[in-house]
Write a structure and sequence with these properties.
Structural class: alpha+beta
Helix content: 10-25%
Number of strands: 6
Number of helices: 2
Oligomer: single chain
Radius of gyration: 16 Å
């Protein structure tokens, strides 16, 4: 059936969106803090990572980490580690599992990782 004016917008095709998961309890707690402090920016981060976690069009905001932080391990598997700048200090660091089309949050906080023990 073809949609028409007034109809609900259907979801995108299966596989077009990525699954977002917390890899740590600390990331889950930090995400809640980030959402409370900057809800609009957190929503933009969520949408960006759900649709294009490997995007390179805005490297100041979203980029792969370098050096010893370039990858992390989850379940014994090495995965590339990226960072999304939610606010001037707030960050989300995440591992990208392309095989499973899943993004794993390993760090989320309204504070920059260097300001914590992360």
């Amino acid at each position: 059936m073809t949609p028409k004016r007034g109809d609900d917008v259907p979801p995108p095709p299966v596989g077009a969106e990525w699954t977002l998961r917390f890899a740590t309890n600390e990331a889950a707690k930090g995400w809640g803090e980030l959402c409370a402090e900057a809800p609009g920016n957190a929503r933009r981060c969520y949408e960006a990572l759900r649709t294009a976690p490997l995007a390179r069009h805005d490297p100041d905001r979203q980029h792969r980490l370098r050096g010893r932080l370039a990858s992390g391990t989850l379940g014994g598997r090495p995965l590339p580690q990226w960072e999304y700048e939610v606010t001037s200090g707030g960050r989300v660091r995440y591992l990208v599992d392309e095989d499973r089309h899943t993004v794993h949050f390993v760090y989320a906080s309204p504070r920059h990782p260097r300001d914590t023990d992360a």
